[in-house]
Design a protein that fits this description.
Helix content is about 45%, strand content about 15%. The protein is α+β, with helices and mostly antiparallel strands and about 400 residues long. It has three domains: about 10-95, no CATH class; about 100-245, Butyryl-CoA Dehydrogenase, subunit A, domain 2 (Beta Barrel), CATH 2.40.110; about 250-390, Butyryl-CoA Dehydrogenase, subunit A, domain 3 (Up-down Bundle), CATH 1.20.140. The strands form three sheets. A four-stranded antiparallel β-sheet has the order 2-3-7-6, with no helix packed on it. Strands 1-4-5 form a three-stranded mixed β-sheet, with helices on one face. A hairpin with a 2-residue loop joins strand 2 and strand 3. The longest helix is centred in the C-terminal third of the chain and has 33 residues, at about 290-320.
């Protein structure tokens, strides 16, 4: 991909096929997924209808997702936007997770080989447990404790809104080994499913949006894991972790944040396209002056979406060429701008459509609820603006 952000014909054709499929086969189940707080019961059969590989992890596909000249991260962002254009329920059914990204950021070579490489090879789903009832954005407030007892660590605490918490083969759990150290006392532990004391208190929490995404409440009640399950540690003790607990959490999320923005853009593009089509059918009911204003407003919203899309592509492009750490503001800028902008655009689309916009006859009210959380999780927009501002001003963050 060039700096002009022009997508190659091969990737454009691939994502065009995916977008058409997602509208035809996935969107009809959007309301059902929202109502049942879970993907459609026949989700696997729906995915089977895709004319091109999706990168599924629940079953082998006839062929892998092709490698495109744009690079892996740019391609994933563009493909994610195309798939979610149908509806948000599709994304988590493809598998994956982000727990293993923490292992890659913080683990020893042995831990990476055991818990990261195998996940990438086998397509295992992993969970991520950071947020607690007492905090959200301020990760220094982690209160879940990890106490060393001989050759083990004993975890106690509660985690909420854990992506993959009930479905992952293991969960990466952030806990403090010394509360007096604040953020520096936080470390991360790999807790496999089925470990005694690891309890899924609530499989899927009740949420305003993305109801079909499984985010779980987890309890750790004297949950014992081996010493080497602390990332950056071996059975002999500290092995020199690559990142601290808090910075490890942030590092794991940095590469994934722009993809979250791409999903928000997908839902907003769908909302804008539906609104444009419906208003065009009502053109005769507007005065020429009013219609001109509407056209200008729709065009401006499209331009705002394109700016968000370019921020996403730039952030992922920097990852692909290995320069993301030299421009730390790029990922933050993509996450800070796109979801908040998307929320405003969908809200305005609903207003332009009047009562029909809020009706469940359309999906705009659902997508408005879905996109709201994307400004909050994996680093809220407010925090991302602080990160971007401090980075641009030359100040260290973390």
């Amino acid at each position: 991909m060039s700096l002009s952000f022009e997508i190659s014909k091969e990737l454009a054709d691939y994502t065009s096929t995916l977008r058409e499929w997602s509208v035809a086969e996935c969107r009809p189940y959007a309301r059902e997924a929202d109502d049942r707080h879970a993907p459609p019961a026949n989700w696997a059969e729906i995915l089977d209808t895709s004319p091109v590989p999706l990168g599924r992890m629940d079953k082998p596909e006839d062929a892998p997702v092709p490698e495109f000249e744009e690079g892996a991260y740019v391609s994933k962002a563009v493909i994610s936007e195309a798939i979610v254009y149908g509806d948000i329920w599709v994304s988590p059914t493809l598998g994956g997770g982000i727990g293993h990204l923490v292992v890659e950021a913080m683990g020893t070579d042995e831990q990476i080989a055991k818990w990261y490489d195998t996940v990438v090879t086998d397509g295992t789903t992993t969970g991520f447990a950071l947020t607690e009832p007492g905090f959200g954005s301020d990760t220094s407030l982690v209160s879940t404790t990890a106490t060393r007892e001989g050759d083990t660590w004993v975890l106690n605490g509660t985690k909420i809104f854990c992506t993959g918490g009930a479905t992952g083969e293991y969960v990466t759990v952030f806990a403090t080994v010394d509360k007096s150290l604040g953020a520096k006392g936080i470390s991360c532990f790999v807790v496999p499913k089925g470990t005694p004391g690891f309890v899924v208190a609530k499989r899927n929490e009740s949420k305003l949006g993305i109801r079909s995404w499984v985010t779980s409440e987890l309890l750790f009640d004297n949950c014992v894991v081996p010493l080497e399950n602390r990332l950056g540690w071996s059975a002999e003790g500290p092995a020199g972790e690559r990142a601290s607990g808090r910075s490890g959490a942030l590092a794991a999320l940095v590469h994934n944040r722009p993809r979250m923005s791409a999903m928000a853009i997908a839902l907003t593009q769908a909302s804008l396209d539906i609104t444009t089509g419906l208003l065009a059918g009502q053109k005769a009911g507007f005065t020429p002056q009013r219609w001109s204003q509407i056209e200008t407003e729709l065009e401006n919203m499209g331009d705002a979406l394109e700016r968000g899309r370019r921020l996403v592509l730039r952030a992922q492009y920097l990852v692909d060429i290995g320069k993301d750490r030299t421009d730390a503001a790029a990922s933050a800028a993509a996450k800070a701008y796109a979801p908040q902008t998307c929320e405003r655009i969908i809200r305005r689309c609903i207003q332009l459509l009047g009562p029909e916009g809020w009706s469940q006859e359309l999906l705009l009210e659902k997508w408005y609820r879905d996109v709201k959380i994307m400004d909050i999780f994996e680093g809220s927009g407010q925090i991302q603006r602080i990160i971007a501002g401090r980075t641009l001003m030359g100040r260290l963050v973390g």
